[in-house]
């Protein structure tokens, strides 16, 4: 067991690192540089990206690590940090890592709470509380990553664009049992872009703002299952489930409530969305234009 005194490189394999005090860095705080590392922050704060782009914890190309009980904060909540900074970054083939029981707060443009990128596989993201703010906030984002599980997290996003769970060119992932709340200009609870064979289920998704999307499948997001979610949208325009240029998906057994001064759509199948199954949903709409299903 090792007790680091501040931000550092975690480079001893098969080692438990216990934080005993707050750790701070102008950029990146913790680098995981070996397999089978455990970082237990014991509730202490990791403060990162105080003045330059950086990450709270960077796991690149290493496997079987555990990050738990960390309070990860970008800069200070009263002042925005550097853009394109991430709370936890899992990158380049990093696999079989566990991220759980952490609190993560980002406050910059293009701020990511947890970002999995470039073939990050078989990672578990669970029981985290993630809050993003700024012009674009991504609570949990998967880019070209597969076979990951994102579940039982409490996610809150705000800003011009707020994304609860964002899957970009990612497949065979499961997003379930999360509580996702988005607000601001454009809020998307679960957003799948060019992503196929994923399952989004048993989430509680609440969106508010100019445009709120509970589940949004876009641009060849095919063969996905969206089911047993409770979706509530409000404010100007709210869409429970929107499919655009996406086919062969199943949307079923969801409880969808939409309201808005302009448009409230339960399910909307937009351009070139073919061979989708939408069934056994409970849909309640109200507002300027309320429509249960639009094809």
Brief summary of the model shown:
Helix content is 0%, strand content 55%. The chain has no helices and 32 strands. The chain has a 21-stranded parallel sheet that branches. An eleven-stranded parallel sheet has the order 2-5-8-11-14-17-20-23-26-29-31, with no helix packed on it.
Written description of the protein model:
This protein has 295 residues and is mainly β. Helix content is 0%, strand content 55%. It is built from no helices and 32 strands. The strands form 2 sheets. The chain has a 21-stranded parallel β-sheet that branches. The protein has an 11-stranded parallel β-sheet with strand order 2-5-8-11-14-17-20-23-26-29-31, with no helix packed on it. It is elongated, with a radius of gyration of 19 Å. 54% of the residues are buried. The model has no long low-confidence stretch (mean pLDDT 93).
Features:
single chain; 295 residues; mainly beta; 21-stranded parallel sheet; 11-stranded parallel sheet; 32 strands
Chain-wise SSE layout:
Blueprint lengths: L8 E2 L4 E4 L4 E2 L5 E3 L4 E4 L4 E4 L6 E6 L5 E3 L2 E4 L11 E6 L6 E3 L2 E4 L4 E7 L6 E3 L2 E4 L3 E8 L5 E3 L2 E4 L3 E8 L5 E3 L2 E4 L3 E8 L5 E3 L2 E4 L3 E8 L6 E3 L2 E4 L3 E8 L5 E3 L2 E15 L7 E3 L2 E13 L1
Parallel strand pairs: 1-4, 2-5, 3-6, 4-7, 5-8, 6-9, 7-10, 8-11, 9-12, 10-13, 11-14, 12-15, 13-16, 14-17, 15-18, 16-19, 17-20, 18-21, 19-22, 20-23, 21-24, 22-25, 23-26, 24-27, 25-28, 26-29, 27-30, 28-30, 29-31, 30-32
């Amino acid at each position: 067991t090792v007790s680091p005194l501040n931000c550092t490189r975690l480079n001893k394999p098969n080692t438990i690192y216990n934080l005993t005090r707050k750790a701070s860095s102008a950029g990146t705080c913790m680098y995981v540089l070996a397999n089978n590392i455990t970082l237990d922050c014991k509730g202490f704060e990791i403060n990162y990206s105080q003045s330059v782009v950086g990450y709270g914890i960077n796991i690149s190309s290493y496997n079987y690590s555990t990050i738990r009980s960390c309070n990860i904060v970008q800069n200070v909540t009263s002042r925005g940090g550097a853009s394109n900074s991430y709370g936890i970054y899992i990158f380049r083939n990093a696999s079989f890592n566990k991220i759980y029981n952490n609190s993560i707060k980002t406050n910059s443009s293009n701020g990511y709470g947890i970002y999995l990128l470039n073939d990050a596989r078989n990672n578990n993201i669970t029981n985290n509380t993630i809050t993003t703010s700024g012009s674009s906030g991504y609570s949990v984002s998967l880019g070209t990553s597969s076979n990951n599980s994102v579940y039982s997290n409490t996610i809150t996003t705000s800003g011009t664009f707020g994304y609860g769970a964002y899957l970009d060119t990612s497949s065979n992932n499961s997003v379930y049992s999360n509580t996702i709340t988005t607000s601001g200009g454009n809020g998307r609870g679960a957003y799948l872009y060019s992503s196929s064979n994923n399952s989004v289920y048993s989430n509680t998704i609440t969106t508010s703002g100019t445009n709120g999307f509970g589940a949004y499948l876009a641009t060849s997001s095919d063969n996905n299952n969206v089911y047993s979610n409770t979706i509530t949208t409000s404010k100007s325009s709210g869409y429970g489930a929107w499919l655009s240029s996406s086919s062969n998906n199943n949307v079923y057994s969801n409880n969808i409530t939409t309201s808005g001064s302009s448009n409230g759509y339960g399910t909307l199948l937009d351009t070139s969305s073919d061979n989708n199954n939408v069934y056994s949903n409970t849909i309640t709409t109200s507002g300027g234009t309320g429509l249960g299903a639009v094809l």
